[in-house]
Amino acid sequence: MLAYTAKRLLTLIPTLLAASILVFLFVHLIPGDPAAILLGDTATPEEVAQLSAEMGFDRPLHVQYFIWLGNVLQGDLGTSIFFRQPVLSVIGSGAETSILLASMTMIWIILIGLPIGILSATRQGTWIDQITSSGAMLAASIPTFWLGLYLIMIFSVTLGWFPSSGFPSLSDHGGITNLRYLLLPSLTLAAPNAALIVRLVRASMLDVSREDHVRTARAKGLHPTRVAIKHIFRNALIAVAAAFGFTFAALISEAVVTETVFSLPGIGRLVVQSILRRDYPVIQGVILVIVVLYMVVNLAVDLAYARLDPRVSLK
Amino acid sequence: MNTLIFFQTAFAGRRLATLGFLWLVMITVAALAAPLIAPFDPLEIDPVGRLAEPGWPNLFGTDHFGRDTFSRAVYGARMTVIIGTGSVAVALLAGGLIGMISAYFTRLGHFLMRCVDVLMAFPALLMALALITLLERSVFNTILVIGIVYATTTARILYGMTLKLRGEVFVDAAVCSGAGHFSILFRHILPNLVSPLLVQASFIFAFAQLQAAALDFLGLGLPPEVPSWGNMLSEERIYVTRAPWLLIYPGMLIVLSVFSMNLVGDALRDSIDPRFKDDIAGV
Amino acid sequence: MKLKIWMKSALAVGALMTLTSGAYADGMLRYATVGEPPSLDQQVVTSDLATTIAHHMFEGLYTFNASNAPVPLLASGETVSADGKTIVIALREGVKFHNGQAMTSADVLASLQRWGEFGSRGSLIFDHVDSVEASGDYEITINLKEPFGPWKNLMAFINGGPAIYPASVMEGATKEPISPDQYIGTGPYKFNEWEANRYVELVRFDGYISPEGAADGYGGERATNFDTLRFIPVSDVGTRVAGVRAGDYDYAESIPGDLFADLDADTGVKTMLNGGPIFGLVFLNSSDGPLKENFALRRAIQTAIDKTPALQVSIGPEGLWRANGSFAPEGSVWATKAGTENYSRGDAEAAKAMAAEAGYDGQPIKFMVSTNYPFHYDSAIVYTKQLAQAGFNIDLQVYDWATLIEKRAQPDQWDLFFTHHGFVPDPILISVMNDNYPGWWATPEKKALKDRFTASSDPSERQEIWAELQALIYEQVPTMKTGDVYTYNIASPKLKGLGKQTLIWPSFWNVSK
Fold first, then answer.
1. What's B93's DSSP letter?
2. What are the structural domains, with CATH classification, of chain A?
3. What domains lie within chain B, and their CATH numbers?
4. Contact A268 B126 (CB under 8 A)
5. What is the rounded CA–CA span in Å between residue B270 and residue C379?
6. Among partner residues C238, C245, C248, which is closest to A166 by beta-carbon distance?
7. For helices A234-254 and A183-209, what crossing angle results, to 10°?
8. What DSSP letter does each residue of chain A carry, written as one string?
9. Could you give the 3-state DSSP secondary structure of residue C115?
10. Does C443 lie at the interface with A, CB-CB under 8 angstroms?
């Protein structure tokens, strides 16, 4: 197990290096000069060139890359051109929103997706199964921004139950009750993702239910609900838990559209705005952080599998 | 003939999936015959008749340019088909080749799959955004960007499936009879993968619509002058209370089409080789 | 069983969260902006959004009253010598900066010098300035090379204008905007924090000493009723509207014209028209490409376009736009009909003939537009159709705003581009008057008229010269005005003290909730 972990950690290094080169190249190929945007309408080309040089954008690309990489390894992601703040602190303020939003969405997914998935698996083939399965598929077919738009219209503008947009930090006025700002966005995000979990729970439970130990349990005359929960659900949970890991990581980065509709100061919108402002250090920083997050989740899931199923480490 | 039987068994007793399939046929017909079906030019501007309510002759009303929403919706079907098939083609060609080759030539495969791993770690939508800024907005680039995103997952899936088939007796037999690599990969292995690929294609087709709509919404998808359902939603979204029909019709069209494609994919999946069933995620 | 308890507690938390809305005290104004400003340094940044925020914390020597005439703000008055070349400005005494320091002529001198050298609009005055000196603790003397009429208007225009900073901040400051920790001004609100992506927050400056006199436009008394002003970026316009309706914001800017009737009828929102209209401008490339020096071809393009349909489509309700060819709006002293018979002819046949005569043989004309401003894009679509009808081969290139700004700085990348211009009190401030602005219009005819225009300080003479300049714009077509657009903002009906109209940028002193 230890050797396996070490091996996996070692292979992470070249992958991360490759990812960092990709991130860097992508960002620097985007047309548009941050200096020109910063100086605005009336700047002359000479002034733009001068500021561009001051910011180091006139150096050869590989030199810029190694400087950046060196700083990253020391934990310095650079300074945002637009905000003139360290990239880490810019990401930090976005991360609070993104993590809270993803967590709340996960709660909905678990509260809605799990029970429906179990219900649909235990009633396989009945009308309940058909309705829940098709319903889940329908939910996954709705464009999130379209759903969000109508949720705002109904629950904020017409009924006035929840705030329409924005998210003040938990440290702002209102404290923990500020989470109410995330209710509608998290529901919007949860709709398609809960649907995926419903389908996944159903499929994994059906798989497990065909295994021998379940048949044995049934043959022993155990109550069907008990079999479903103790024998099937528990074993299916391994696959489901892995899916949760990836869903959480995906929710952090794929919430761009929801964040835009609800005007949330999250990571996704930060990237979009930074692309439009050509704020290279921030785009690089955020994508790098997300890539690392993905890889860490991936590693964690693999290690968890290896622990639960010793056959994996032989490969 | 084989495919026909495959379809027949897949849809037998599945009324909803059959309806979905029929809807997709309608979309395809609309896409092919758009100029015949659409009563107006989808780009014709009419400053006087703008924001007209649904009725006659504008079945779905008009937008803020005074353009006929029904005609735009019909032409939008065309974009739906183009984006869907385009993304599927890119994803299956690129991803399929990488996946199959990686599973067959293990050394090269090891390297290639690591590259796929790196790409998969990139957040799909954010990468698509960065790419589009790089490439400028066009139909082709939108297809390319969405296709690339799904190429990675397709590569992973085909890698797994080809690995399973490589150990089969019929492959060994082909090797013994002196078949070349090319022939083994494409004459012997590929035909076994056609139906799972079809399933994967239908899910990519469905998700590509949602991705394209999301890109349109963020103003980084298809060029804004192209009549697509995503662009219609994105361009007219401020009219949600002022002219609700501008959001309801295109929105419903997207939901119906994606739902139908998912239903079809789901029905097909249930009737493919059980060995491959778990490999394809879908909805 | 456990699940049940869990769900119950989740429901309870949910209920709690719905009930405790309205946690904000009435002391905070929440303003939904279109985005985040590039910087708040007023001297170098010309973004309207930056000024909307920053004019609460930075002040200039002069400002505008409700009739757009310059009145003293940090100055208390001035004397101009008989030859018009020496201006002595007296400063108000007892004015304090946010860091507690008293404002003296040393600070004003340092600020004017930095603005003159690096400020966005500084050279407009300083090209005519011989020297500036601090002639007393509270007195500044400006020596001009020749009489320069619009100096006071330029001093009063805070956007890209001479905001007064402490001398210590100005030390070593260049073209690059000063950083947020140096945002120290004399205004009624002071900088508190800039949470990236979240908000820019200003808080009341307790040491503020307001100018005397009743409030009139931006002049006169400035009372600080709010403790905090928070400017929140809400880029999606639908979200801004929904947010004000739902009570999450007190004020939201830049609302589409088509929603005006609905919002005006809605008692839950107040609509606030902006006084000075903005206007769209299509610039033509004077420095490169097929349009360079081919004035006949430019006039052909101008002739092909009918501005009205574009305004109908992009703005909507008739009350919110005016197909007006005068660069200054109706009612302004600068309004003139000179040249405007060519403003919006929309004559495809005539245009075709003119183009042929000008030697146009169908080469592509690159027209750049950005989707970041829907009204630009909508208008450009209409113009492209009209130009195509007149036989022009238009290559419409749609970019995001950042890319457009990058491309328009390169003369070989474009032939036409779409932008818009805010209301300005003096035509000298219009971008086309600047020889360095993309388009690079700098013909000898323009120079001759511009020199006369700036040298004169006689109002009626300046108006006459401006009419000649406008006629020249219609003849040489460095840019095409698309029409006046009266933009509006929306506010919560709870806000008290907002005027009927917004002068140029919304201001929230003298406003309460």
1. I
2. 2-73 (no CATH), 91-308 (1.10.3720.10)
3. 13-276 (1.10.3720.10)
4. yes
5. 52
6. C248
7. 150
8. -HHHHHHHHHHHHHHHHHHHHHHHHHHHHS-S-HHHHHH-TT--HHHHHHHHHHTTTTS-HHHHHHHHHHHHHTT---B-TTT-SBHHHHHHHHHHHHHHHHHHHHHHIIIIIHHHHHHHHHTTTSHHHHHHHHHHHHHTTS-HHHHHHHHIIIIIIIS--S--S----TTSTTGGGGGGGGHHHHHHHHHHHHHHHHHHHHHHHHHHHTSHHHHHHHHTT--HHHIIIIIIIHHHHHHHHHHHHHHHHHHHHHTHHHHHHTT---HHHHHHHHHHHT-HHHHHHHHHHHHHHHHHHHHHHHHHHHHH-THHHH-
9. helix
10. no
The overall longest dimension of chain A from CA atoms, in Å, is: 85
How many CB contacts within 8 angstroms connect chain A with chain B? 125
Beta strands C75-80 and C62-64: pairing type?
unpaired
pLDDT tens across A90-141, in order?
A: 998 889 999 999 999 999 999 998 889 888 888 888 888 889 889 999 999 9
Round to whole Å and give the CA distance between A233 and C295: 79
Which tokens go with A30? 């985007």
Query: What Å distances lie between residue C334 and A184, C70, C229, C331, C337, CA to CA?
Result: 51, 15, 35, 8, 10
Residue C355 near residue C392, CB atoms below 8 Å: yes
Of A256-260, B12-16, C194-198, the poorest mean pLDDT is in B12-16
**Residue owning tokens 């015949």:** B36
- Choose, out of C20, C230, C239, C253, the residue to mutate when testing the contact with A (most A CBs < 10 Å): C239
Across the interface, which of B121, B129, B251 has its CB nearest the CB of A294? B121
Place of tokens 């733009």: A48
Q: Tens-of-pLDDT digits for all 315 residues of chain A?
A: 788 888 888 888 888 888 888 888 877 777 777 777 666 655 667 777 877 787 777 788 888 888 888 888 888 888 888 888 899 989 988 899 999 999 999 999 999 988 898 888 888 888 888 898 899 999 999 999 999 999 999 999 999 999 999 898 888 888 888 899 999 999 999 998 888 888 888 888 887 777 777 778 778 877 877 777 777 777 777 777 778 888 888 888 778 899 999 999 999 889 888 888 888 889 889 888 888 888 888 888 778 777 766 554 444
ipTM for this model: 0.88
Cβ neighbours of residue C476 under 8 Å, at least 6 residues apart? C295, C298, C441, C443, C445, C446
Q: Rounded to an integer, what distance in angstroms lies between the CA atom of residue C137 and that of residue B154?
A: 76
Contact (CB<8Å) A149/B237: yes
Question: Contacts of residue B238 in chain C, CB cutoff 8 Å?
Answer: 237-238, 241, 256, 258-259
DSSP tag of C319: G
Residues C1-54 have pLDDT tens digits of: 444 555 555 555 555 544 444 445 579 999 999 988 888 999 998 888 999 999
CB contact under 8 A, A143 and B214: yes
